[in-house]
């Protein structure tokens, strides 16, 4: 919410989405947000791919999405329990597709042009810092995604 407020006047007037932890978006909301965006930000718990249906994602065409930022891979007791319970019904291959590299490949095949994603589990605080750095460099300074990622790596 702080990021939205900070960049509201210039950049976020056209941003749409679901914020907060009051509810989980429906599959239809995920699809609508993904197909109508030029950039997509996921800032949430566990793996991004655990929140959407794989068969629906692979059938999607998302060529308008120039950038997808996945600040996921945060784990809490509640999220781990949810993922464990949902994982019981998933095959080993399906769980493997939810890993960061495989997720980036799938998103690329659906038309997403650039993906910035975590490679390993992290904390909410670390993701908040990453989001602040990315927002400042992409929105305020106007750096390219490559330049912003390079700054994150430092």
TrEMBL record:
InterPro entries the UniProt entry points to: CFAP46
Any single biological process term in GO: axoneme assembly
Identification of the protein by name: CFA46 protein
Domain of life: Eukaryota
């Amino acid at each position: 919410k702080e990021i939205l407020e900070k960049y509201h006047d210039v950049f976020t007037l056209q941003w749409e989405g679901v914020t907060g932890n009051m509810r989980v978006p429906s599959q239809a909301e995920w699809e609508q947000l993904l197909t109508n965006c030029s950039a997509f930000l996921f800032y949430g718990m566990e793996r991004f791919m655990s929140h959407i249906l794989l068969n629906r994602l692979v059938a999607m065409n998302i060529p308008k999405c120039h950038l997808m930022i996945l600040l996921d891979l945060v784990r809490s007791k509640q999220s781990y329990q949810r993922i464990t319970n949902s994982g019981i019904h998933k095959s080993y291959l399906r769980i493997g597709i939810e890993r960061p590299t495989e997720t980036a490949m799938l998103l690329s095949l659906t038309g997403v042009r650039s993906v910035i994603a975590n490679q390993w589990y992290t904390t909410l605080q670390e993701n908040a810092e990453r989001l602040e750095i990315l927002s400042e460099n992409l929105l305020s300074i106007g750096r390219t995604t490559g330049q912003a990622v390079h700054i994150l790596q430092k």
